[in-house]
Amino acid sequence: MDFFPLLQAPLFRGLTSSEIEKLMTSVPKKIRKFKAGSQVALAGEPVTSLMIVLSGTVSGEMVDYSGRVIKIEDIPSPGSLAPAFIFGSSNRFPVNVIAVAETELMVIDKRDFLSLLAKNEKILVNFLNMISDRSQFLSEKIKFLNFKTIKGKLAQLILQKASKDKDSLILDMTQNSLADFFGVARPSVARALGEMEEEGILDVKAGRIKILDRKRLAEYMSH
Amino acid sequence: MDFFPLLQAPLFRGLTSSEIEKLMTSVPKKIRKFKAGSQVALAGEPVTSLMIVLSGTVSGEMVDYSGRVIKIEDIPSPGSLAPAFIFGSSNRFPVNVIAVAETELMVIDKRDFLSLLAKNEKILVNFLNMISDRSQFLSEKIKFLNFKTIKGKLAQLILQKASKDKDSLILDMTQNSLADFFGVARPSVARALGEMEEEGILDVKAGRIKILDRKRLAEYMSH
DNA sequence: TAGAAATTGTAACATTTGTTACAATTTCAA
DNA sequence: TTGAAATTGTAACAAATGTTACAATTTCTA
Question: Which of A44, A79, B56, B124 could be cross-linked to B101 through a Cys-Cys bond (beta carbons 3.0 to 4.6 Å apart)?
Fold first, then answer.
């Protein structure tokens, strides 16, 4: 089989392709294929193995009781599905997982995976890094949800993206996906953006956002 | 030294005291003592070691943008400090850590800890379980924050607690801590409880809650 | 037990967000 | 290029929550 996608996978960082090949041929594993739109896993279903996205993309989504879908995150190749749920006391998928494109997954049983971790320290460190990063991501997410107002969430998102570049940035999300991401209604996002533009804080043009008043934008995160 | 507190520590679950003693005498470690009220770690400071609370209690606190201090959680003996931040790409304390009482910490350097993990599979699994549990806790928290209405959050909390017992339960939290937990204003909690009582769904008396209409209570989680 | 402190109940009004609906604009594909 | 589909802008009104203030009640403590 082709181990090339694994070279890019976080779990195998720092390993050469021959090392990977040697390790992987000795580990029992399966390949599973999914068509775009098909269900990969249901929330609540047991997680009994490590799954690595070899090609394609899956998406983790939550459904609240009113049927609204809240997208939690996309996992493109070569990421892993729910690595933080293989161990721990619950061992169940926290979200529904959908293939958003034609997708190939490599599946390694938990027991086999454990012996792989014990066998190779690089892989062990990589895995510890992965699930630790996961916690760190969730902590960020919570910080995010705790911003009460939509303008606060927008300010947080915009300042986070802008700090890397300059005062101009591109939000490559539609208002709809923004609304899903925040867990709010779409027209409310439009209104918030419109108002911040009126207030002279932002300049929004065709998905490109320009920060006009950084100070007042940051203030929206405080109250 | 006295290894007794470690017997109770999640990291050493399933090990006998003689196994622990044997392992620990071969691992470089330090004991650090803190007086009540003293700073154990600053938010943003690098996490370079595993720290286990042998005695006493530490508390994680966050400072928001307006300077207000928000207590995140207490870690009593025999818990660990920020185990999910030893590895991962950030490696920095997410919160300020304060000793709330006279406290003793056992400190094991990251490198030494890693060799301990590689040496003993039980400890490895325990640690994987610990940081995975952390992720799972955070996921729960997120699910919770996603309930939009206060009545929905209340319904979720009450039904979660009640399912174990009967239709009667005790919320051992004041309205104030409930409000903090939900991230809402205190009078809003009082109003929501009052309204649900008026609607004949709950009976609230001195902290003891009785569910009168389970069906309509559950409906509040849906919309 | 008496007074202080904390908790709870309640009200009026302001603010934010949701809901629904529709028009304007942009993007995409035949 | 043109029509369909998706995205965005906007408005009116409803619902939920916040804010502030104060009284009533309960719990703690000297």
Answer: B56
